[in-house]
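Tokens in:
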């Protein structure tokens, strides 16, 4: 799986409006992925550490693939399934798999979580930095489609910027929201209560809310029985 670096750089600049570094082997290096990576990986490791060996864990919107492959290195007994809506990012996920030398990661696949269910049942799932940078309909689709592949008691982790009771958690998140909405009128920081209510409609119950660095939250839903 190879990509044209010039075309990829232009594609990323159009979406993110800044230059994104791409390593010579095709690995995309998003600054924000790296910045909060340790705290995010700690959450994921803690949550998945009691899963039985051989469990299958799905990531939606894997982006570059950096988070998933780092987690896979740390949890060799679990099989991880990277997916991404943007097919141009798949070569980067593939390059991160090779770079990390992990054997427990499935081939990355294109999946729009807003409109499609994953191809088979999994034991847990997570998504990072996406609910604010995609239309609300995609979050509705996220719960709808995950309800088809996550069984009773399965965990779903969602990380990102959220409002609480209609309030921004910081001035920087307010500015971020304005910027997002200028870029796409369907994007914007969501109220956690609205996300929770949507999850409830699809059988997901909000169990834990963790404060994370830079005014982000890691929220954990559990599929009811
Ligand atoms: C800000 S990036 C986050 C990437 C990665 N999770 C991370 O934290 O580094 C947002 C990603 O969400 C993906 N995305 C947005 N809507 C999606 C959808 N409906 N289905 C799958 N991927 C989607 C975009 O293609 C992009 O890669």
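Residues out:
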């Amino acid at each position: 799986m190879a990509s044209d670096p010039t075309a990829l750089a232009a594609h990323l600049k159009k979406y993110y409006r800044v230059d994104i570094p791409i390593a010579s082997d095709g690995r995309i290096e998003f600054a924000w992925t790296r910045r909060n990576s340790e705290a995010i990986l700690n959450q994921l490791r803690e949550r998945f550490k009691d899963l039985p060996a051989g469990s299958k864990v799905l990531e939606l919107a894997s982006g570059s693939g950096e988070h998933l492959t780092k987690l896979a290195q740390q949890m060799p007994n679990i099989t991880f399934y990277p997916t991404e809506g943007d097919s141009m990012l798949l070569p980067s996920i593939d390059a991160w798999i090779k770079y990390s030398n992990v054997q427990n990661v499935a081939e990355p696949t294109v999946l729009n979580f807003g409109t499609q269910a994953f191809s088979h049942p999994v034991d847990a799932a997570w998504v990072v930095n996406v609910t604010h940078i995609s239309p609300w309909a995609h979050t509705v689709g996220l719960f709808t489609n995950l309800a088809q592949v996550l069984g009773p008691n399965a965990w779903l982790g969602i990380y990102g910027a959220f409002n609480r009771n209609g309030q921004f958690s910081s001035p920087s998140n307010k500015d971020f929201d304005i910027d997002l909405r200028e870029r796409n009128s369907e994007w914007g920081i969501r109220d956690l209560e609205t996300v929770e209510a949507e999850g409830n409609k699809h059988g997901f119950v909000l169990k834990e809310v963790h404060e994370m660095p830079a005014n982000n939250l890691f929220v954990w839903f559990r599929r009811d029985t």
